[in-house]
Amino acid sequence: MKYILSAAILALSSISPVVNALPGAYSPSDTTGYPETPDFPSIPSVNFPCGYEEKNWVIKSGFGNPEQSANLLIDTTFGSIFVAGVMCHSEFCEDQSSPLYNSGKSSTSVNLHQKKTFNLGSERIVKADMYTVGFDDITAGSIKLHNQIFGKAFSVEGFPSHPNYAGVFGLNPVTGSSNSTAEYGYSNMLGKRIEGDTDPAVFGRNVTLKGRKPKKPEKRTDDTSEVCTFSRGIDYNLVYKIGWLSFPTCEYGKSPFWKTDLECVKINGVVDLKFTNTIAEFDTTVKDIHVPHGDLEKIHQGLKATYNDQVKKYVFKCCYAKDLEISFKDHKVTLPAEAWTIKVDRLEDHCAAKFAVSNTTAIPKSRWRLGTDFMENFYTIFDQQRAQTGLGLYHGQSSSYLT
């Protein structure tokens, strides 16, 4: 089965500055490749299934020695790690198809004798005993976390039933959190690639790109299985341009990470929405682009969309869908129609938008939550040292996606 190369990269990075720190004086805005072959170190990473048919971004993790496996949801809105423990009897825990974490079976497990309640928002509440499992004993692929504190949950409420994960791997470096990802962050990166293809322009790891033209990614189809990579580092073999985004100005007192100000959303000939005091949040806990109710109504009206009971979506003629332009304070991104719509009939003349109503209770409520279907089109980066979020383009992707 062939996988599709796309641009979903999620990075939490302490590598800065992005240009001068690289060997060979490589500039991320250079689309022609490296002037000299840089010697990049291997970047720890883990692969996981992604694409439109996957409902969540989930990585397989290991705890302790001997290792106990658990699938964890990647979460840009949360700053810690928790895994369901054997003493948990919440519906979330009892629905697990795999064994729960048993600290008694780990020779490196250390009980810190602290209890903590995590509020993950949207009425998701986790109560946990805090543990560590020794040096380098939380793993994900080739990623190893050093003496990481995590929660062994005994109560998990507000999560969906029958989840495909047993805990959460938080990427939000919450200020002042003693067990946040700020403690272990270099970078975390998500990106699609083609199975069985060893072309350097695809895998881009310790290879020579000099004199090569970037490989053009194949056209994505919505029924194609895909694989993404989550790694600790910004892989400059893959990303050639980064647009850095300012923290939101209308959310003082809240964690600003993975967010920026939203100024305008436009679909040519359909809708032109302008905003003040509105947040754009890059949110891996949702799949679609989650839009405030009033904004979504205007989009449906512009697309002449009607609700279809059979597919449970608002449907419109595909020809009405044009480029989607999302303007932040510092940069604008442009997605072609096929990146934000899905065809819903065999004749492929009717489409639905990859939008959903935002039901967040977070303040301000005027926020767009740009979920994984949006993030798959870019490298989504948080650079820890410069404390800034960015969107990056992959080699072979048109620069018109990010201006």
From TrEMBL:
* UniProt superkingdom: Eukaryota
Instruction: Return the PROSITE patterns for the record.
Output: NTF2_DOMAIN, PEPTIDASE_A1
Q: Which UniProt keywords apply?
A: Signal
Domain spans labelled Peptidase A1: 57-392
Boundaries of each NTF2 domain copy?
370-403
Q: Point out the signal peptide segment.
A: 1-21
| Transmembrane stretches, start-end | none
Q: Does the keyword Membrane apply?
A: no
Q: Which Pfam families match?
A: Asp (PF00026)
InterPro entries associated with the record: Aspartic_peptidase_A1 (IPR001461), Nuclear_transport_factor_2_euk (IPR018222), Pepsin-like_dom (IPR034164), PEPTIDASE_A1 (IPR033121), Peptidase_aspartic_dom_sf (IPR021109)
Q: Give the family, as the similarity comment puts it.
A: Belongs to the peptidase A1 family.
State what protein this is by name. Answer: Peptidase A1 domain-containing protein
Which species is listed as the source?
A: Helicostylum pulchrum
